[in-house]
Design a protein that fits this description.
- The protein has 405 residues and is largely without helices or strands.
- Helices cover 7% and strands 6% of the residues.
- Strands 1-2 form a two-stranded parallel sheet.
């Protein structure tokens, strides 16, 4: 009688899975009886693993199609050759995970952290009693991200060379320093994505939408951009910026002198559509009532800056460090502030005279993935603002104005 072939995926009952996860928790805590989770080639399709701490788990070749893994921690996990099609991976932690050859077709990775992960193509072979070693195959080719949702995901430094990601949604994703050489990104949506320092050499971006994408220091050698939409892309900053033949820093110093002397020296500056990036930092600067609409402050260090009553409407403040900044009464309408760090910032009303106040205004601002933890924003306006995936824990929003439900 001939030997039966070993199935590629082994089904687990609920009790066995629960015991394996409990043993893994003991392993992570260094307690007796702990054992690292190893569910290679297991059938975990449609399983609920939401919010679980599965750091360093070995899930090579596992079938996780349709699984619910939202907010789970799989940092440094092995998912080589795993089938993650249509899985719910929102806000999952996949830092430095091995995803080589994994199939993520249609998976939802919105807000996920994939910093330093390896998404290159790979293949995995299993031993079969009848046929020897055979390549484990998914319905689609391994290393595929077709139709996956990576909106707002952190893919900084990710290894994605040669990845196939047709029509993938990477809206406002952080792809800084990512290796995308030779990637096939037909019709990919990269609107607002940060591609600073990324390697796109030889990649195919035919028909891609890259509106407002950051292309500072990007390698575009032999990159195909046929029919790509590059509207309002942000390229490298100029080495120096002059305002009426004066260096920008000198002009700002005059504004700061006015603020510090209560108007006795210097003067208030009007600086619309200025690229502030060459300054690198405005940390702790006193820039009260600065008027700089539609200016570029992308990724700038503004920690502790005094910007009370400032007009920053339409500014690009994506990824800016605004921790502990004073933004009381600031006008931030239509501002781009995705991934901005606003922890501990002051954003309450600003008194302008006896009994008169100006509120901080975020009307129509883009605040996706911004961090408001521990900030103070009483009575602030968030009308039509995009606050999806923004972190608001511990933020004082007393009387804040949001859209009607």
């Amino acid at each position: 009688m001939s030997a039966q072939a070993v199935p590629h995926h082994v089904a687990l009952d609920a009790q066995t899975l629960r015991e394996a996860i409990e043993a893994h928790q003991r392993y992570l805590a260094g307690r007796a009886g702990g054992r690292r989770l190893s569910l290679t080639y297991a059938d975990l399709s449609n399983c609920s693993l939401e919010g679980l701490d599965l750091r360093e788990a070995d899930l090579a070749g596992a079938k996780l199609e349709g699984a619910m893994l939202a907010r789970a921690n799989l940092s440094r996990a092995i998912l080589f050759g795993a089938d993650l099609r249509e899985a719910d991976l929102r806000r999952i932690n996949l830092k430095r995970a091995d995803l080589r050859g994994a199939c993520l077709r249609g998976a939802n990775l919105a807000g996920a952290d994939l910093a330093g992960c390896d998404l290159r193509e790979g293949r995995i072979a299993l031993q079969d009693k009848l046929d020897g070693f055979r390549v484990l195959r998914h319905e689609h080719r391994p290393g595929e991200l077709n139709y996956a949702i990576l909106a707002g995901a952190n893919l900084a430094g990710a290894q994605m060379a040669g990845v196939v990601a047709m029509a993938v949604d990477c809206t406002d994703a952080n792809l800084s320093g990512a290796m995308l050489s030779g990637a096939r990104l037909h019709r990919a949506v990269l609107d607002g994505a940060d591609l600073s320092g990324a390697d796109l050499g030889g990649a195919d971006l035919t028909g891609a939408s890259m509106k407002r994408a950051v292309l500072d220091g990007v390698n575009l050698d032999h990159t195909r951009l046929d029919d790509a939409d590059l509207t309002d892309v942000l390229r490298a900053p100029p080495p120096r910026v002059y305002i009426d033949d004066r260096p920008l820093d000198e002009v700002l110093a005059e504004h700061e002198a006015y603020c510090r002397s209560n108007g006795a020296r210097g003067k208030v500056m009007n600086l619309p559509e200025v690229d502030f990036r060459p300054l690198k930092t405005l940390k702790g600067r006193k820039l009260t009532a600065l008027t700089a609409p539609r200016s570029v402050l992308f990724g700038l260090d503004l920690e502790g800056a005094e910007l009370q009553g400032a007009d920053l409407s339409g500014c690009d403040l994506r990824g800016a460090n605004l921790r502990e900044a004073d933004l009381r009464g600031a006008r931030l309408t239509d501002a781009l502030m995705g991934r901005a760090d606003l922890r501990g910032a002051k954003m309450g009303p600003l008194m302008i005279s006896e009994g008169r106040f100006v509120r901080t205004d975020f009307t129509r601002a883009f605040l996706r993935n911004a961090d408001f933890r521990g900030a103070s924003a009483p009575r602030a306006r968030f009308i039509e603002a995009d606050v999806r995936q923004a972190r608001m824990a511990g933020c004082d929003l007393t009387g804040a104005e949001f859209d009607a439900a």
